[in-house]
Amino acid sequence: MTEYRKKLIEVALPLDAINAASAREKSIRHGHPSTLHLWWARRPLAACRAVLFGQLVDDPSSWPDRFPTEQAQDKERQRLFRIIEELVKWENSTNETVLDAARREIALSLARGRVADGEGTERDQEVLVDGASMKVIRKYLAEVAPPVHDPFAGGGSIPLEAQRLGLRAIASDLNPVAVMINKALIEIPPKFEGRPPVGPVPKGSKQTTMKKKWHGAQGLAEDVRRYGEWMREEAFKRIGHLYPDVEVTAEMAKDRPDLKPLIGQKLTVIAWLWARTVESPNPVFKGVHVPLARSFILSTKKGKHAWVEAVFASDRKSYKFLVRSGGKGKPEVEGTVNRNGGTCLASGDPIPFTYIREEAKSGRMGARMMAIVAQGGKSRIYLPPTSEMQALAESASPVDVPDTDLPEKALGFRVQEYGMKKHQDLFSRRQLVALTTFSDLIPLVQKNVTAGAIEAGFGSEGPPLERGGIEAAAYGDAVALILSLSVGKLADYNSSLVQWSQGRDQAVHVFGRHTLSMVWDYAEVNTFAGAAGDIRVSISGQARVLESLVSFVNPVVEQRSAQEPFDTASIFSTDPPYFDNIGYGDLSDYFYVWLRRSLAGQKLRILSTLLVPKASELIASPHRHGGKEGAERFFLEGMSNVLVNMARSLSGDFPVTIYYAFKQSTATNAGVSSSGWEAFLQAVIDANLAISGTWPIRSEKPGRLRETGSNALASSIVLVCRRKSADAPIVSRGDVVRALKQELPLAIKAIQKCNIAPVDLAQASIGPGMAIFSRHGKVLEHDGSIMSVRTALQLINEVMDELRGEEETDLDRESRFAITWFANHAFEEGPFGEAETLAKARNVAVSGVENSGVLKSAAGKVRLLKRDEMPEDWSPLTDKTLTVWECTQHLIKRLEKDGEQAAAELLAKMGPRGEQARILAYRLFTICERKKWAEEARAYNGLVIAWPELERLADGENAGAPGTQAGLFEEA
Questions:
Q1: Which listed site, 54, 465, 494, 716, has its alpha carbon 20 to 30 Å from 210?
Q2: In this structure, are residues 163 and 186 in contact, taking their beta carbons and an 8 Å threshold?
């Protein structure tokens, strides 16, 4: 038995509600803190809020005197669940009533524990008084409760949610871009809480200075708007001539009825679309620079189809681009470059990548304007390029641009092979002019804000922002820092790596993925057009974020390596780097060079290096550490140091929560082939930590599965860890195997009850298995050596495979036949003889399986019926040979064709077979995953994800209790 008071997260969570809120959050943009500035792989705020609450609040079983029976404990648990269910909703993220309910529970748990441990003071007794005021509660959390420390703060999700729950937050990160994001998100707003704006009201603005009270960071947000608008206007005065309107001419309107009403009008340009070019490799067409474009399609919107056509002269030595539109037309040539190389439009000859790369490295790759996107009334229209527009873009003369080098090789980089060696190479000439102009205006903003703050009575003396204070200069620094992040956001849309979305008619920012990859046809946006890429749009979004922040508790934000010993006893919750998935440092240099230029006058310590510090960045980068083995060793040693330091500095009797997610390789009978997960778990073991809980927190929308041959871990596996007991027993390999066989079945059923998606089940199941392994002091092999994590993972997977096989024994014979046949043939034909042999092994005849409606047998061949071949009027109530296989396939068919309500009506008729169909979906997904049948896997994944809603609709009410992990991590 455990000797500590269990926290709620170590026993149970309302996982469905948390996952639903986390997935929904992905589609929320306005006011979401992620819009302050880009950071990679942020955790959903809803999940962070719920995890922190569960980590800090006691489970009712920890207080048997207050909740003496299981019924009483469950009733109290359900009450806490209701708090979480409200807490995770996005619309409640600023609801003080909901937040105060959560804050009170956290304070009560802490105060009760301190009193029970003999550490209580008057402050604790004040909290425990019935009806203690929220003023007392908030002050207690801000001053008495241990701080929450995230040593890999990144985009700030965890520190922000700790602050929202009324707790002090410590946000530290090695990366200066992350530090600046955290400063803007959690450090700066509390310093200026309740202060009115100091900037002049912009002309035409509805805002006035007569507002009586400015709550929270509303005044700061308004100044960001005001000075941001000034900065934009000043930039337009300097470079607006590079962003002219486009006049619709009669020539443009020729063969374009849609343009005739617009002849003579000047329209705002949204973007200029370009294609990179290289000289034709065919000697006959020497000097002809042909376009390299992944696609000539401009828009696929219904009724708005548009595309580019390259029209050659008769000798094919020159060409011009025309824009066609209307109907469902499409270009004769959809593109000239793909994964295999390019095609010369002049000659039709192939252009190998070796030739393209050589031309690019030699500086001979060019770019040619293909089309102009303009705002025509309520919709966007596509116009052909003009020589004047091309010449104007090429006339831009950037000066004093960042001269920093791109890494020769790095995780997530693909552009160096195409002649891009410096950061400035990632931008067009006009884009460089825009970014340098806005960057150079930031120091002027700082001076203007400081002057306005002095006039408003802030005071002119005091320490700079980096060391605290609310003086005028610090306020100027604060507004300048936030607006420098808007310049960073501007860079995300102003690059020659920006693609144009054909379906949305807008530019797509650079970092849609965690890479810097080559883009052949790119969009150069108009940064003054009021659309994506306009700094006004970014600033407006940032101001909305600042206005939405609540619960101002002064935090600590600092730049430091996570491997350094921690100074303060804290509660730790963190989202560490994912082994070799994301090269945070190298990628963030893209923004850092502009942030550093913008804030050069502030002389911040965090911006003192030419590029982001990377030597101690805790990722497994083979390019930095002499190859894969060296990178893995560096990651393991470093992560072990971090976890050891966390265990040493852990405050009180709290667990540690650690998020971990990665793109996992396919699991095999030999084990899970993921060196990242393995290295991370080894670091946990080396730090003398034991796993006391594991939760799959889903943050993606249903049905997400990437291209064939890979799966994406759509959940973060949240590990709950405790310091391992000093008297943890030493056991044998056989002891662990027996414990796995005894305890894993219960654990897997509990996880499936949480309705975890099949795409995540294999990884989530490792958590309970590793909990069994990690609770022991050592596990000895037959030869006396200590069992490694790799071996433990192999054992867990072997037991998991046995459990999957045992699940099949509960199914009807026809379904068991179908599973094995599916694993070998999917829905393709196979020989009758093989089917007959398999049928005998399953104690059934092939004819019997055929009569059950599962397969078709003819001409010596056998195959499973595809879903679209199954009868439309099928019903489990009238099927005399009902099988679980049919139930599963018909549920998927009904779900995909007719939606959730129709599938639920079918489920309601299945009785116990319905739950068996869900379990079968897990099994079939596993087969598809191993076979790399991505499309079929998506069907089973989708069914399981939809299951809670199907049950609710089938039952007429919410069904299924929240998942529980009670007892899963006790010693056998």
A1: 465
A2: yes
